[in-house]
């Protein structure tokens, strides 16, 4: 089924009397269980596109249907869609330093109408998936970068979102740790999670099954990653 359906999406930033076209005429459909990388140079429009996919920002043109829901709606409704449908993973983890690992992972569930015992169970389940169950009482500052990103992935997973949206998730990590994080994302994809990965690094993008290249605000290429389809 279609998780993301964008038609003619554009984004123009107004700066005083001038305008800047950051995205133009983006047509993009992503199905459930895909693993898509969006790659492009700095300034290509990746962050803008990610913000629209993640319902953090709205387009100035076109239509964006997310999991069957039209995202042209009030800000409150858009926040509700974002919180229930998207799991975010950022380069800098965005963990709350004063909260323990388990509390960080529980956070997205506190805004939902869920019993506290179930919140704890679901957070533990997400933490187990990323292999951190021995550290749940630690604070983020006591962890390595790779461990912090695992926490962030657990936090993204805990709401069972329709999409995991990862913005340069390995950007702050050494290459060995980065590979481990990518392997977690691949394993989650094998379990059926839909993953959209934003990066400027072709080595990272080449781990995805479909690679979309954007340049100057437009999709210039959208191809299956042949290394996954050799001999098929
Ligand atoms: P990328 O993530 O690929 O580097 P961005 O989406 O951040 O690209 O930016 C695309 C272009 O849009 C850049 O030229 C950037 O300066 C511009 N831009 C991004 N956000 C804004 C904004 N809020 N206001 C004005 N211009 C912006
Ligand atoms: P990235 O490193 O992912 O390309 P940027 O540093 O381009 O991100 O942008 C960081 C944030 O600042 C984004 O939310 C982007 O929309 C915003 N931004 C980027 N360029 C501009 C700009 N020229 N004016 C205002 N905001 C901008």
TrEMBL record:
Domain annotation ABC transporter: ranges: 4-232
Pfam families attached to this UniProt entry: ABC_tran (PF00005)
Gene3D superfamilies, alphabetized: P-loop containing nucleotide triphosphate hydrolases
GO molecular function: ATP binding; ATP hydrolysis activity; transmembrane transporter activity
InterPro entries for the chain: AAA+_ATPase, ABC_transporter-like_ATP-bd, ABC_transporter-like_CS, MacB-like_ATP-bd, P-loop_NTPase
UniProt KW keywords: ATP-binding, Nucleotide-binding, Transport
Cellular component per GO, a single term: membrane protein complex
PANTHER family to which the protein is assigned, alphabetical: CELL DIVISION ATP-BINDING PROTEIN FTSE (PTHR42798:SF6), LIPOPROTEIN-RELEASING SYSTEM ATP-BINDING PROTEIN LOLD (PTHR42798)
Stated family: Belongs to the ABC transporter superfamily.
Name of the featured protein: Putative ABC transport system ATP-binding protein
Organism: Fonticella tunisiensis
Lineage: Bacteria, Bacillati, Bacillota, Clostridia, Eubacteriales
